Amino acid sequence: xxxxxxxxxxxxxxxxxxxxxxxxxxxxxxxxxxxxxxxxxxxxxxxxxxxxxxxxxxxxxxxxxxxxxxxxxxxxxxxxxxxxxxxxxxxxxxxxxxxxxxxxxxxxxxxxxxxxxxxxxxxxxxxxxxxxxxxxxxxxxxxxxxxxxxxxxxxxxxxxxxxxxxxxxxxxxxxxxxxxxxxxxxxxxxxxxxxxxxxxxxxxxxxxxxxxxxxxxxxxxxxxxxxxxxxxxxxxxxxxxxxxxxxxxxxxxxxxxxxxxxxxxxxxxxxxxxxxxxxxxxxxxxxxxxxxxxxxxxxxxxxxxxxxxxxxxxxxxxxxxxxxxxxxxxxxxxxxxxxxxxxxxxxxxxxxxxxxxxxxxxxxxxxxxxxxxxxxxxxxxxxxxxxxxxxxxxxxxxxxxxxxxxxxxxxxxxxxxxxxxxxxxxxxxxxxxxxxxxxxxxxx
Length: 444
Hints:
The protein has 444 residues and is α/β, with parallel strands linked by helices. 33% of the residues lie in helices and 24% in strands. The protein folds into three domains: 3-161, 3-Layer(aba) Sandwich (Rossmann fold); 175-349, P-loop containing nucleotide triphosphate hydrolases (Rossmann fold); 355-443, GMP Synthetase, Chain A, domain 3. It has helices at 15-23, 66-81, 97-109, 151-161, 187-195, 241-256, 272-283, 301-315, 335-349, 355-368, 405-419, and strands at 3-8, 41-47, 50-56, 84-90, 112-118, 140-142, 175-180, 213-219, 222-228, 259-265, 288-293, 323-326, 372-373, 376-377, 380-387, 392-397, 427-432, 434-437, 440-443. The strands form five sheets. A six-stranded mixed beta sheet has the order 2-3-1-4-5-6, with helices on both faces. Helix 3 links the parallel strand 4 (84-90) and strand 5 (112-118). The longest helix has 16 residues, at 66-81.
């Protein structure tokens, strides 16, 4: 089992800044507005010879709102599951009454705790942090999360507190699966259902999820990281800077993910937003599964399958290689199948073809259907796979201007028919054919 390190503290003391610093990426949204982080956010990191999961949490609040209650519940669950607690406080403001409440709750958890005094930008400022020793914690580290000061020392302190056998087998990397879609299609409900706990706050108010939230789950005895994201909107303009940051967080999270699941609402079908998101996923060359959620609400399922599939293939023709799964986050129907399919598409995404089989397939395709335009025949002189994730194929041709989109699609379909490659984008690149003759490079 990986050691779980949980960051706790009141709002705006720098928990998300510290989280981003420790994971080495801008995974959490940072904003001056209290309550920006609402859910728990997991991320796996390595330090020296050990792997651990860092968890960012919502700020501990005494507000009586529904959101505040749910955020506090999220934090309490995170404390229960933690192996090590990073209790973060703000040196600029000094000890706050809520800090004392949190300190008491943390001590009652009887978990290994490191008190992190944040916003200590220089050694001279460390005197400001001495008052925090009165909270009753012996293990104290002075850091500046925004500047990175002493972040390595903090990781060393965490490393010293991890208790596991040095002979433990190396932990394999988990498949990272990201859920994307417009607001209120059920992405957070999906995460809660598969993790069998309230990992993400679910509310009918659009924008409840602001950050890209990573959760470690086990499905069919396999470990995964599942990433919930803020809903993406169709319009290019954001109502406020929080919406912009949420969109940016989702974009970064897509880059980091292995497989994307485009979640759509079975009652609403494929709209402009889904088309926009699909284009984004294709631009980022990610393998994709389309999960049609709220399937439990559909009466005539047979007719709905046909209509939805036709609509998908018509509106998102450029992603016709994506598989479709009809699911219900509410009942749990087919959710495990999404993970099984994710394994398959990632295998195709990482596939390296045998050169001879690839050569035979292309030769057969061009023999059966040569491409001729204005009396000139397109000739594929040399071809090879040059990369995976996604599979990339380079073709050297006699005339690049003869390469038509329809013929590229034909070659792509031939490769998919022969080798599978379903669920993943594949990239075909064409260049002018050159050959050396008597030491001189000539094009043909």
